[in-house]
């Protein structure tokens, strides 16, 4: 009888641990395109080769090696930038979205749709910034949100700069390890 109770207790403990592990994995924010945090530059280059994407620029940005990539397919995606840490492993993926035919309303709708999708996965966002102010003769607007989970985060930004008829707008997603 004692053996059966011990098995039942271990089974319950195992199921609880499994449920907690599944919940933790569900909340983890992973990078897009099948990348994984900590992948080496060599592994990322192999993935890019398999997908037909190309590295169009390699530079150092704020002390981190950054690759600008074209050819990763996603609606409205203009370009992707991947950042590597000091150990040459993946620490950030930035997705930049732009469409020349979009007006301000289209950008706002895209931003709102992305925010709603992220909130459905990760819960309410932390508002990082909501700011509209002139910088010289340019009116700048920045809106930013963040979600954090299990040692990773994602940030969503809208940026707009307008001077007379010159307009630059972009939405970006920043997947970050750590």
Summarize the topology:
Blueprint (H helix, E strand, L loop, with lengths): L1 H26 L13 H11 L2 E8 L2 E7 L6 E8 L5 E8 L6 H19 L3 E10 L2 E12 L2 E12 L2 E12 L1
Antiparallel strand pairs: 1-2, 2-3, 3-4, 4-8, 5-6, 6-7, 7-8
Describe the overall structure.
- The protein is built from three helices and eight strands.
- The protein has 178 residues and is of the alpha+beta class.
- It folds into two domains: 58 residues, no CATH class; 81 residues, S-adenosyl-L-methionine-dependent methyltransferases.
- The N and C termini lie far apart (48 Å).
- The N terminus is likely disordered.
Summarize this, please?
This protein is of the alpha+beta class.
Cα radius of gyration in angstroms:
21 Å
CATH superfamily of the largest domain: CAC2371-like domains
Shape: globular
Quaternary status = single chain
CATH architecture of the largest domain: Single Sheet
Number of extended strands: 8
Number of helices: 3
What is the first-to-last residue Cα distance?
48 Å
What is the level 1 CATH name of the largest domain? Answer: Mainly Beta
| Helix and strand pattern | HHEEEEHEEEE
Q: How many domains would you count in the coordinates?
A: 2
CATH topology call of the largest domain: S-adenosyl-L-methionine-dependent methyltransferases
Sheet with the most strands: spatial strand order: 1-2-3-4-8-7-6-5
- Secondary-structure-based class equals alpha+beta
Roughly what is the average pLDDT, rounded to an integer? 87
Kindly state the percentage of residues in helix: 25-40%
Main sheet overview: 8 strands, antiparallel
